[in-house]
Amino acid sequence: MMLTSDQKKKFEENGYIILNNYFSQSELSDFYIQYEYLIKTACEKAGLFPSDYDNDMFDKAMLEIEKVTHDLIAEIYDASSMMPAFLRIVSKKETESIINQLLENPPNAPLYCFTNRCRIDPPTDERRTYDWHQEIFYTIPKSKFIQTWCPLIRDTTIENGTIWLCPKSHKNGIADQDWIESEGKALQVLVKDELVKQFTPIQLEMKLGDFLIFDPRLYHKSGVNNSNEIRYSLVGMYHSALNIEFNTPKSIFNYRKESSRQYYDDFLKKT
């Protein structure tokens, strides 16, 4: 798939484009089914009965699991990003072609997929709600990349806190920003207020299946979820591995409970 000249022009001018009906019902359904299984398993780990939430698995069950322990929600978050159905969504061949086109790479150039995740934003929970920022300082330093975002599970609306953008703000380059670390809240690297005020923000309501692609220098922020449902959204980045300044991060996986060595020692009684 190649972008039209008009689509590419809009991306260069506004800093983003939305591809409507980009993901098929089949792709989204596979993800839905696999994610639902994760929730059911988490219910069992939490001592809850999955059958109690058959008609409200993605909201009530998740909120009840959170009441028992946030650790299980964190497990769902991490597991969902490695599910085959999710990997098929983020690894779509057409996406690879589009990203390379926007990066002005050869059509089959290697991309490095980084922090592609399904965000979980519960109602009125703003611990991981980001104010106006660019992704530059949240990711691989000095990298050349394109950012993506889209609804998963259900549409994103103003009420459930869909994404905000400042069109054309990418033209200002890397903005002056403040690094803010606060206890109980995610790291915030925020664009100065006076820079944001130069632009007219918009909040994008998006249908399930739509796909937002945007310049990482574009000012954007999370919306506040004022609904009674959890907002599920895909966030991701595609870095050019051809960039001479690109350095591949080391993958570090930590065991949540016992390590493979602990399991070995315990199972074979190596004490």
Tell me the overall shape: globular
- Uncertain runs are none
Beta-strand proportion: 15-25%
Radius of gyration: 20 Å
Q: Topology as H/E string?
A: HEHHHHHEEEEEHEEEEH
Q: Mind telling me which CATH architecture of the largest domain this is?
A: Sandwich
Q: And the CATH topology of the largest domain?
A: Jelly Rolls
End-to-end separation: 57 Å
Strand order of the largest sheet: 1-8-3-10-2
Give the overall pLDDT as a whole number.
95
The level 1 CATH classification of the largest domain is: Mainly Beta
Q: Any idea what the CATH superfamily of the largest domain is called?
A: q2cbj1_9rhob like domain
Pairing-aware structural class of the strands and helices? alpha+beta
Taking the sheet with the most strands, its summary is: 5 strands, antiparallel
Helix content range = 25-40%
Extended strand count = 10
Whole-number tally of structural domains: 2
User: Total helix count?
Assistant: 8
Could you describe the 3D structure shown?
This protein has eight helices and ten strands. It is an alpha+beta fold. It folds into two domains: 1-23 and 99-243, Jelly Rolls (Sandwich); 24-91, no CATH class. A hairpin with a 7-residue loop joins strand 5 (177-180) and strand 6. The strands form three sheets. It has a five-stranded antiparallel beta sheet with strand order 1-8-3-10-2. A three-stranded antiparallel beta sheet has the order 7-4-9, with no helix packed on it. A two-stranded antiparallel sheet has the order 5-6.
